[in-house]
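hey so i finally got around to running the thing on that chain from the lab meeting. sorry it took forever, my laptop kept dying and i had to restart like 3 times. anyway pasting the input first so we r on the same page abt which one it is
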Amino acid sequence: MNAPHDPASPLAAPTSADFEAVLNGGAYAILPQFGVIDANGDDAATFLHSQLTNDVQHLDAALARLAGYCSPKGRLLASFLTWKSGETVRLLISKDVQAAVQKRLSMFVLRAKAKLTDDSENLLVVGLAGDVRGALAGVFDALPDGVHVKVDDPSGSLIRVPDAAGRMRFLWVGPKEAVEARLAKLDGALARVSPAVWDWLDIRAGEPRITQAVSEQFVPQMVNYDVLGGVNFRKGCYPGQEVVARSQYRGTIKRRTALASVAAGRELARAGAELFHSDDPGQPCGMVVNAAAAPDGGVDLLAEIKLAALETGSVHLGSADGPALRVLPLPYALPAEV
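ok and heres what got predicted. didnt touch it at all, straight out
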């Protein structure tokens, strides 16, 4: 069995068998890199609606939704996948920022009837990828039929998340004992793989995750959250809302997140690493948002970069003479910037 994943070491490489299982079969991974914040109380949804970039108050019970939490300057402190589980609003978050974000959110509850709790120890987060529908159909009575569609049963919530590398993906979050009991039924049909494979799949899906290394670095549009449905521009105020709206409507989005790979430089390729353009070695042109070991032995990245830096020359990791990035097509289209 694979060693546990260390969230502080995002490039702990999966084995070739791990990648093979996902790309040419079906696999699951238990994901300790995520934590779960539960919000309960009569005002829980209303409170989160006033704090996050997306509409939580009107979140459909059968859907999940991306959202961000910004500083007053509009910079992302955290990113979430959020959904309702009964009367609870559940937030899936990078484990390394959970405590700080939960503490900060709790400071603003004030008189609202809402309580935030860390439910990570009671829940199990599982990612499933590849040819997994048949196996899941033996465990769940129904499967979600679209991206961010959710089904619930006593073993938790099963959420379809964006495909990656052409493979279907699901997140399963539920009570630890119930999930473990059902996972035993999947062991014969699906391979258990390293949780680091999920980090790579998120990157190939073009879906950034805000971790401690890049907290407060990006306005949501810089990590394509407007394109991914993580920002609602019609909802009411939230921290940083004026900055986010101004960036959207005044044509000031000059930086975006690209999908890229590097063949070398594993020791340099990690979240927060700076990027440099061949024509301007004196100052960084971007930053690595997320990085993960790739099946070819290199590293795949989500990299926030000045759009102008992608037009000519080359972008390098760590310094202008560091490993060169090879930009790959994202699995979704970015809007034409003016």
